Amino acid sequence: MLALATTKASFSAFPVGESSLLKLSTDPTLPAPLRPLRSFVITDASVPTGFQAYIGFEGRTPMDGLPPGSSTIVLPEEFSYLADGDVLRIIPAKTTVRVLYRRRSRQNFALVTERCNNYCLMCSQPPKPTDDSWLVDELLQLLPLIDRETREITFTGGEPTLLGDRFLTILRECSSWLPDTAIHILSNGRTFSNAAFTEKYAEIRHRDIMVGIPLYSDLSHRHDYVVQADGAFDETIRGILNLKRLRQRVEIRVVLHRQTVDRLPELAHFIARNLRFVDQVALMGLEMTGFTRANLQTLWIDPYDYRELLREAVEILDSAHVQVKIYNHQLCVLHRTLWRFARKSISDWKNEYLAECSDCAAREQCGGFFTSAKLRYSDHIEAVRAAEPVLA
Fold first, then answer.
1. This prediction's pTM
2. How does pLDDT run across 361-381, given as a tens digit for each residue?
3. Confidence at residue 389, expressed as pLDDT on a 0 to 100 scale
4. Domains of the chain, residue spans
5. Which residues on adjacent β-strands are paired with residue 281?
6. In CATH, which superfamily holds the domain spanning 108-329?
């Protein structure tokens, strides 16, 4: 899993070798038969009996008066955001707690493998050639604990489809446990060039599932350079075609940086002519983490400097009736004609705003910044004044 946060904690009365998942409750009236399956988050002096464990926070939670022999965890105060329905992985032997799922969050991500057959210049999760099959085991344990009303879960990597049938097992479990939760898969699309695998994927028939596949250029050699894999462009295109042949939903994702923006209008024409049937196109700002840090000189371009190319590309796609969205951009660096395409897409746990944004009239509609963006900001960040029209 892609842990939302990891911390050291104080444990009491837990078996040292035990590693397990805990689903949290803040409901002191939870029926007694359900309490052994939940861990109670202490919010006041009233502590009900019968729960699997009790969780408090340093400096704010009194841990006396608990039922005798209770298993307890004391977390740093900054984890006091934990709420009913959240799920933790606890590792008492390492005094470690990982937050795996937040019920109230709009974005929950699951890292299913760190292996990948691309080596993208701007990869935010650099691949590792290790056996990390335990991630799948953990995820299969987690899925039954996730609230049925969760809006969306994103599966990411590495490259999830390299797991083959094990990844398809995850998706089948989602169909059983979370039939109404939207599933978004971040994949390079290359495995879907295998028609047999794609047919197995299509047979799962989850009611709301989409594969987000990157396409970085209309030129095969340019795409292959960005992903550092010869032949990747051809496999990616075949993967998209195989998915759409079986009426599966596909999103094309384009990360905008110095190696992709100069031919952005040409890529938009390519999509409009050849891949018009995709379900949406996401044009995405650069995240300053992972390999981006090492390749910053090769990748960085001020978003304001490609605003004309971005506007042209969006107009091409929109005029071809291709749904297009702009992610990870600040409204003040975009043409106003593009504001209706912009989305707040950065996960809440890694989203922030600058001092310049404090009195911005469009702040609530603006995507803001990745917390990792401290490395480089646009030189054109400025507040939108209240007298100016903002998004509805």
1. 0.91
2. 888 888 888 877 677 888 999
3. 55
4. 5-101, 108-329
5. 252, 324
6. Aldolase class I (3.20.20.70)
